Amino acid sequence: MQMQSHLLSYHVVIIGTGLAGLATAIYLAEAAALSNQNISILLVSKAAASDTNTNWAQGGIAAVASDEDSFEAHILDTLDAGAGKNDLHIVRKVIEAAPDAMQDLIRWGIDLDKKVDGTYDLVKEGGHQFSRIWHKADSTGHTLQATLMHRVSQFKSIICIENTAIVQIEKDAQGTFHIQAISNHTSDQTYPILTVKNCIHIQCAQLVLATGGLGMVYEKTTNQSIATGDGIVFASKLGAILKDLSFVQFHPTALYEANQSGTYLITEALRGEGAILRNIEGVDFMPQYDARASLAPRDIVSRAIMCEIKKSKSEYVYLDATGLSVSTIQKHFPNIQSVCQQKSGIDICKQWIPVVPVEHYACGGVQVDEFGGVVGVEALYAIGEVASTGLHGANRLASNSLIEGIVFAKWAAIKMMNALSHDTALPISAYHFKPILVKKIDRTLVQNCLSNYAGIEKTTADLIKGFNELSQVYQEANTLKHWSLKEWENDLLCQVGILIFKDALAQTENKGVFFNLDFD
Ligand code: SIN
């Protein structure tokens, strides 16, 4: 049966509209305007353009900016958090580029918090020796998302299409990427894919995966619902190398809500301002685990919390922010204050907040070179959480991810501009996609499997059990004749889950976020 699809062609297609995707588009458009090149850029988002993890980031952006601080100190903190599994060359390159990237954000109009003397109000988070986190109260990501979307809208060379799900990517012998996308989908609409009317065929010369994380593979995550590991599966099918997929970071402090799947993040910046963790008996337990106490790197804090939870048979510990002044809470944490009140009836100025660790960030991902180019796949880039750049090692230092996204966006844009010479023609060629086969997978089963067998503390027996269970489920699942986007995502989540178990079983030592009780 003939595919009824519209054909679109661009020099560059960027999948994802969080910080990484938006910044890549802006740097490309700026460079093209400067060199008088006619480069067409398509930004595609699966949901609304602002439905991204970036939009919900609370903490901030790490970049050295004060006299007491130094690149060496930021490098040391990054390596210490990453348990030395980082790529030192990349760590230095990112950290030294960070202050200039902040100037780009300022040039694009970002409004971050300042002190009364007009200098930027830098704060501290776990694992940082010095205050170097640039922020906008407790909603930095929202400001960042709005600033970048506004800047994108100033370029005619950038087209942004929302609610458009990319469901297939192939590359032909000439090096052109062929992308199949479904526009204006609704989550439960089903597609007899070979006759779908709202299917778009997009071609491009350079492709950027800025698809974000994979948090939906776990029962509880701070990620948004779009975070289903799409880029991981696309890249893998195109021949990319996946690295350290089991280095999944759990954020120590999400708001605990009994019988709720909701996972509202309580920023680490609250601990940076002096909030402390207490166990169910009210004991300030972190000094027993690490000299940096509540401000230790998050792998250490998450494991300590799990230990306290196990010992006390409770379901949570407390975050005590009652020592902070009311004015500090109101000025720096207004959203957390109001959400805790609304969701749990807690006045954080007077009451301790029940918290629990939840999935937060994929430290591993698609292996890229120092320009964000996917190793082994020409003209394919992975920027942001989807990528494994070498910066984070075995555990990402708080607030290092937004800065990583910006600087790699810049370097990838430079490399793409070099590849797109003045007369690069738009790719237009006939192409027949392979059929998309979607298996019927139970999302809850996948999430239970990952949460039970690949959580903060793992055992080899559990990992084998999880791997075998998911592999069998996937092998035996029926292929759907008609499928919805949600079902397509469920299939993806199962594939990502299997890859996480596979990677975890290949690890040989405990480092950073990876902790197998059998190795101790
Ligand atoms: C936070 O605000 O605690 C999260 C920041 C981050 O994950 O880098």
Keywords, please?
14 helices; FAD/NAD(P)-binding domain; four-stranded antiparallel sheet; Flavocytochrome C3, Chain A, domain 1; 520 residues; 18 strands; seven-stranded mixed sheet; single chain; 34% helix; alpha/beta; binds succinic acid; globular; Methane Monooxygenase Hydroxylase, Chain G, domain 1
Bound molecules: succinic acid
Give the termini distance in whole angstroms.
57 Å
The strand count comes to 18
Give the biggest beta sheet: 7 strands, mixed
Q: CATH topology of the largest domain, what is it called?
A: FAD/NAD(P)-binding domain
Which class of the largest domain in CATH terms?
Alpha Beta
CATH homologous superfamily assignment of the largest domain = FAD/NAD(P)-binding domain
Mean pLDDT: 94
- The geometry reads as globular
Low-confidence stretches: none
Description of the structure:
The protein is of the alpha/beta class. The chain has 3 domains: 6-247 and 363-420, FAD/NAD(P)-binding domain; 253-357, Succinate dehydrogenase/fumarate reductase flavoprotein, catalytic domain (Flavocytochrome C3, Chain A, domain 1), CATH 3.90.700; 443-506, Up-down Bundle (Methane Monooxygenase Hydroxylase, Chain G, domain 1). 34% of the residues lie in helices and 17% in strands. The strands form 5 sheets. Strands 1, 2, 5, 6, 7, 9 and 16 form a 7-stranded mixed sheet that branches. The chain has a 4-stranded antiparallel sheet with strand order 11-14-13-12, with helices on one face. Strand 6 (164-171) and strand 7 (177-183) form a beta hairpin. Helix 1 (19-34) packs parallel to helix 11 (400-419), helix 4 packs across helix 11 (400-419) and helix 13 packs antiparallel against helix 14. The longest helix has 22 residues, at 485-506. The model has no long low-confidence stretch (mean pLDDT 94). Bound molecules: succinic acid. Succinic acid binds at residues 58-59, 267-269, 398-399, 401. Succinic acid (SIN) binds next to loops.
